[in-house]
Amino acid sequence: MKKLTTAALILAMLAAGAAIAQNAAAPATDPVTSVDVTVDLSRPGAPIARQIYGHFAEHLGRGIYEGVWVGPDSKIPNVRGYRTDVVNALKRLQVPVIRWPGGCFADLYHWRDGIGPRSQRPTRINVHWGGVTDNNSFGTHEFMDFAELVGAEAYVSGNIGSLSPFEMSQWVEYITSAEDATLANERRKNGRDKPWNLKYWGIGNETWGCGGNMRPQMAAAENARYMAFVNAPRAMGMIKVASGASGNLDKWHDYKAFTEEMMKNGGPTFGDHMEALSYHYYAMPPDLAPKGPATDFNEEGWAKQLHYTLDIDRQLKDVIAIMDRHDPKKQTALYVDEWGAWYQPEKGSTPGFLYQQNTLRDAQVAALSFNIFHRYTDRIKMANIAQMINVLQAIILTDKEKMILTPTYHAFDMYRPFMEATPYPASTSAAAYKFGDITLPLIDVSAARGKDGKLYLAIVNTDPKRAVRVRTNLTGKAASGQILASDRMDAHNSFDNPNALVPRPFRGEMVDGRLVVQMPPMGVAVVAVD
Hints:
By secondary structure, the chain is an alpha/beta fold.
């Protein structure tokens, strides 16, 4: 048997859905429920920024080491130390931006630990995530080169909790300077002649928590102070991102008050505006309540998780209203630079590594989140899933030399046509999925005109039992695309069965000139209307 290349293997994994139809719910011919979808093509919104499909890679568990970096001497196939299979999978997604090195890891990180000969770099204890050691073999050069390799923009989170403005400014100069100066020459000595293009710089991370336990007034003042000193060459156009609020800690942290203070006193003076403000939200029980399992959950676990996911919409409306009051011209972008599902760690894994399986439910979490971000494109210009590989809602899982693509990966892949697309408002008739005291929209949609000129419609059926006939006002000749669906709520890919849940071809039909789509239970579909 001929051995497949890594790229061919990935493509085969993505195309395997047609051969495993027994794992996917077949489209219903006589759906129990009908839902009407109306897309207003007369009201185009601001383009969907590519960076909304961004990623987050922290020094946490096996996210960097083994997930991205195996070293050039590894038996695992690699490109200069980066896993070949992972690089190819990320290139397919056209990953727009990667945030690094954290997260809480960033709040104790000193950039000098990660430069120079790897054999001479210090070994530090990762006090936030498992108390394990990090030999710093993956540092600034490795990250910046990795971002270039996969075609992504670099987003570096600087440490304001324990690093001075001077030290942070030196880090930026080391990365970006083209001058005949000491730091630039040190970079050249370490193997990089030309400066890297540093698109985004984070002024701290979660300053209200692991980034310094700061009160809103202190966080705003520190942000303004660091912004004054940390600068790249003007021609590079580096965007400085202020560390904003979180929506997960209502008992300890008022996200509205924090946003208010950041917008009022956290930005530059002399008439300039804050360029971007971050926001973090995890789909999980509120206020650090016990989390559920990633697999083997029941319908209650399904319904609650989707409820947690959709709650970000309420929070974003609050945050954006505050930003609009202080910034009516919408000059300050909102970056949701940590989002995703957070469950119990997998049994047998190291608890501090946050390794969890990824199911069809997570594809729904991703799709519903994308649809929400598409509704606020005049303000939301970036979002970064937490995290890219082997941590939390990962798009890729690895086990030594093995790699699988998760349902979340497939959701990102299906939604690629929405990058830089022009969104349109879309409404649905009042049909709901109910479980106990939880009520969710039965059908959630997003519509946009892609850069290729086609109209794309993303559809999510949140009900785990009911098929739905979705009737739209969209006209055309045909509609085709892909669907991710199964008859199991926790359907997932494993290292023994990596193609258990993959997208398969999907079509809508034109009825009286209007697009009608038969959505199976739990389905996530993206179709192009011709």
